[in-house]
Every structure is written in C-alpha cells, then in structure tokens.
C-alpha cells in the first residue's frame, strides 16, 4: 500500500494550530510565507493562547532602532534565515507548503533580524525607557511639550499592537522602570526627587497602580540614576544605594553584597540566575558576590572583538543564557553603513574556577545606515 501524504490545506484550523504551537517562533516568518492561511494562523492570538496552555511559550528577542530620517522607532525581532537546498527526492505531486515541513528542504543555519509588522501602531514620542514583562514591552515617552507621559505604553508582542495603561498619580521626572514579581515599578530618577511621589507600581493582572512606600528620611538619596532587580529585590543606585524588599515592604541601605563604585544600566548589565553580568574594557565580566569583585567571563576566545564604547553594546538575559548585541562599522564595503552582530552565550559556573561561557551561535543579523541609533534590546515571552 502506497504511503499517502497529508494534504495540509484541507486540515481544520484547530488541528493546524495544534501543530504550529510546537514550532519555535523563530520559524514563524518562514511559515507565514507558505500561504495566506498560514500567515493568518501564525499571527493569530489563538495560537499564543494554545502555546500557553500546552507550555510551549518561549523567549523572543526584540530590538528597537531609530533611523535619522524617521521620528518613530522601528522594531525588529530575531528569526532564522532560510536557505533553500535542492530536494534530493523531489515529488512532483507534493505541494510547496507541504514540503516546507521537511528538514531537508530548507536549511536553517543563520540568524537575522526582521522588521516587525506592527498593526495600528504609533510609537509614543521620544521613548526614553523600556522593559519587557511577559509578552509585553513597556515604555515611557516624552510628550511634545517636553514633559514625561503619565501613562505607560506597552506593545503586545503577540499581535504587535500598542496599548496604554491607566494614568499614574503624577508624571515622574526622568523616570526609569524595572520589573519585579511580574509588576512594573516606575522610579523618579531626577536630582532631589519628590519622595511623596517617588515610586509607583503597576499590577499587570489588575491593570491598576499600587502604592509603594518611599524610603525613610534617614536613608533617602539625593538622586537615583539606575536600578537592578536581583534575588527578588529592587536595587536603586545614586549617591546612595538602596534596596526594596517587596515581601517585607521595607527599604534599606545596600550593604557589601553589591559592588561599590559601580552603577549598572539596563543597556549593558543583566542578571542571569542571580549572577550579574556586565560589559567593560571590551570584554564580558561577572560579579563574584563571595569575593566582592568583578571577574572575566572565560571561554570566549572565539567571540569577535567587542567595541570600546559601551553605548554600542547591549546585553539581555535569554532563556537562562546571555545574548550580547553590538555595532560594527562596515569600512571595507560601505563606509555609510554598519552591521549589527549578535551572539548567544550559555554560562556555566564551575566551583573554584569561575564562570565559563559557551558560544551557541554568533551572526551578523542586520545592516543599517551608520546614522541609525541603537536603542533597546530585550526579550519578551510569547
């Protein structure tokens, strides 16, 4: 009896969705090219609801860029670059979209950044800070009059649509945001902050702002410049380093558990498995909390040389690993363009021998005009 082929176009949507939820989102841009029906299915909200139910959610990388000729931010996401190979056993009766599921038909070896097809999307003007929580990327923008918005905008990475939260009690001055226990904390970052409205917390589940007590007068800082979430606590850095424990609803001064004379940023510092990783002197480093000093991340001799300038580098935690992204000028081929590189690094802590990194992959993922500005790099869960 001859083997019969499954004719995918005539399968019910429910069955196709249950197949597609098991395919990594890295391949969705390829699947969307199969047919209009596939394009509709991989973009449907129902697909992501099923992924959540069957435990197939995953981290997806997003990059935001600003081009000099455009006022709005443009978004990109990481996917696999398809490379067509000849089919060793061509079947004239098979359909193209059926054969795309065969591993010998398409070789997926390279990574690339593709533009995100946003829907009904207008970026808030001059976004200054962003952070990802679950499937949403939250951002605060500056209005046309120069004031900071009292609302937080967020992009749903499942549908790539923009939404707004309810208004905060007041507009923060030079705010920055952090994520702790699934909630968004907005902190006033200017000099001599108003401690009556110093910090607010947005509960994504209830869609409401919650009260957070301010630090006591004895430990208040004159200014706050950055934050870091570590071991279930919110750390604030300025002329004083403070820590907020949400379980005890209590503020305190940071002790020796954090590095002195060091201010982390969301651009080139990241926490993976309660270890702080950062970038400095063209190398990746990690903070040894036992010895209270920075140490180089070993095992990365094959990683291309990173830029000298920190602003050309971004770090993000990604499924228990580190992803580093950096810019590199293209002098030889086109002096007016630059390449964006990306590398995924698995980390392993070896007792008494430090932390070692293993390069999972490293690719040039995007080429852009040299005037293009690198903004934010983050991972959302979809």
From TrEMBL:
It holds the Pfam family F-box. SUPFAM superfamilies: Kelch motif. Residues 11-51 form the F-box domain. This is F-box domain-containing protein.
């Amino acid at each position: 009896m001859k083997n019969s082929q499954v004719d995918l176009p005539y399968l019910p949507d429910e069955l196709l969705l249950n197949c597609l939820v098991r395919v990594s989102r890295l391949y969705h841009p390829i699947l969307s090219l199969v047919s209009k029906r596939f394009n509709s299915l991989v973009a449907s909200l129902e697909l992501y609801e099923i992924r959540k139910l069957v435990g197939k959610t995953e981290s997806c990388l997003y990059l935001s860029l600003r081009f000099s000729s455009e006022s709005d931010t443009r978004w990109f996401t990481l996917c696999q670059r398809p490379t067509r190979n000849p089919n060793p056993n061509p079947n004239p009766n098979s359909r193209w979209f059926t054969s795309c599921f065969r591993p010998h038909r398409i070789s997926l070896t390279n990574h690339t950044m593709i533009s995100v097809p946003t829907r009904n999307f207008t970026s808030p003007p001059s976004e200054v800070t962003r952070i990802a929580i679950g499937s949403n990327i939250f951002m605060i923008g500056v209005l046309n009059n120069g004031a900071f918005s009292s609302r937080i905008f967020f992009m749903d990475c499942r549908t790539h649509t923009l939404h707004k939260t309810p208004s905060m009690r007041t507009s923060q001055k030079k705010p920055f945001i952090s994520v702790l226990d699934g909630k968004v904390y907005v902190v006033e970052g200017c000099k001599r902050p108003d401690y009556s409205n110093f910090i607010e917390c947005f509960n994504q589940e209830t869609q409401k702002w919650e009260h957070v007590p301010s630090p006591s007068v004895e430990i208040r800082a004159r200014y706050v410049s950055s934050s870091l979430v570590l071991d279930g606590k919110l750390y604030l850095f300025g002329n004083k380093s403070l820590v907020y424990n949400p379980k005890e609803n209590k503020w305190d001064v940071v002790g020796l558990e954090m590095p002195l004379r060091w201010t982390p940023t969301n651009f080139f510092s990241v926490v993976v498995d309660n270890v702080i990783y950062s970038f400095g002197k063209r190398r990746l480093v990690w903070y040894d909390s036992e010895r209270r000093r920075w140490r180089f991340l070993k095992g990365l001799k094959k990683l291309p040389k990173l830029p000298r300038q920190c602003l050309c580098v971004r770090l993000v935690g990604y499924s228990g690993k580190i992803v580093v992204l950096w810019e590199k000028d293209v002098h030889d081929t086109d002096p007016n363009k630059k390449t964006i590189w990306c590398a995924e690094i698995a980390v392993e802590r070896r007792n008494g021998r430090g932390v070692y990194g293993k390069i999972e992959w490293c690719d040039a993922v995007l080429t852009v005009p040299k005037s293009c500005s690198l903004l934010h790099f983050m991972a959302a869960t979809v």
